[in-house]
Design a protein that fits this description.
The structure is a single chain. Helix content is 38%, strand content 13%. With 278 residues, the chain is α/β, with parallel strands linked by helices. It has a single domain, classed as Phosphoenolpyruvate-binding domains (TIM Barrel). The termini are far apart.
């Protein structure tokens, strides 16, 4: 037996992310499958298995219909595809609002069945108590303030937050309560630069912005948006590729080759072996 000890890559963990407050910006992207996670892993500090999967992969109109089973399935895939990035899984709508004990049961199941390093909860008025309960029991939690996609039915649409002074103060208070409850980081979504800056300065944990300006301690985007898979993206998205165009071109070329009987060619075809000479 070889005496050489195989070294494994240590994943980035919640304390590593928390220590980045005010330091080198934190690079985050969403991931929903193993091949994509493998490609993103070398470049990202944190991969979020976002409940946005319901919209960008499953074609749902919003994230409300996402289930625990969907998040577990995609969380498992991302864990298989990645090695070093911290993996955080969104807790879906209805899985943590029913009380801290219910939330603990669902979060513990999520972490056990996926192997992820943390969960993310959208922070509402009742959520900080739940976050504290989870953290005290060994579950790292990432918070989420500002535009909260799971609240789309009460808000009526995906609307930027903090436009009035009352709303601005409420979002800051939710962020402070989330940090005080023990969240290791907070996503800030869909707020003006000034509010993002105020939140980032007010809390002791790193903030990760999505549509919240460069004032945050890190940034996250929905990966299919960033890669240009859709014909429309929100104002805050920068497209770093045009995969929609590339996929359309490649598919058209494939279809033309099939119709013209140019695919498969001889190099892509199996042939029977010739019998050996006597």
């Amino acid at each position: 037996m070889s005496s050489q000890v195989q070294q494994t890559v240590r994943r980035i963990a919640a304390p590593d992310i928390q220590a980045r407050k005010g330091a080198e910006p934190i690079v985050c992207l969403t991931a929903y499958d193993a091949p994509t996670a493998a490609l993103l892993d070398a470049h990202c500090d944190l991969l979020l298995v976002g409940d946005s999967v319901g919209m960008v992969v499953h074609g749902l109109p919003n994230t409300v219909g996402v289930t625990m089973e969907m998040m577990i399935l995609h969380g498992q895939a991302v864990m298989r595809g990645s090695r070093r990035a911290m993996v955080v899984v969104d807790m879906p709508f209805g899985s943590y609002e029913g009380g801290k004990e219910v939330a603990y049961g669902n979060c513990a199941r999520m972490m056990k069945e996926t192997g992820a390093q943390a969960v993310k909860l959208e922070s509402g008025p009742t959520v900080p108590e739940t976050i504290s309960y989870l953290v005290q029991r060994g579950i790292p939690v990432m918070g989420h303030v500002g535009l909260r996609p799971q609240a789309v039915l009460t808000d009526g649409a995906f609307k930027a937050k903090g436009r009035t002074e009352e709303e601005r103060l409420r979002v800051i208070a939710e962020a402070e309560a989330t940090a005080d409850a023990g969240a290791f980081s907070i996503v800030i979504e869909g707020v003006a630069e000034g509010l993002a800056r105020d939140i980032t300065e007010a809390v002791s944990v790193p903030t990760v912005g999505i549509g919240a300006s460069a004032a945050c301690d890190g940034q996250i985007l929905v990966t299919p948006d960033m890669l240009g898979l859709f014909d429309w993206t929100p104002k805050f998205v920068r497209k770093y590729a045009d995969l929609r165009g590339e996929i359309d071109r490649a598919t058209a070329d494939y279809a033309a080759d099939v119709k013209g009987r140019r695919f498969p060619a001889e190099v892509e075809t199996y042939f029977s072996k010739k019998p050996a000479s006597p």
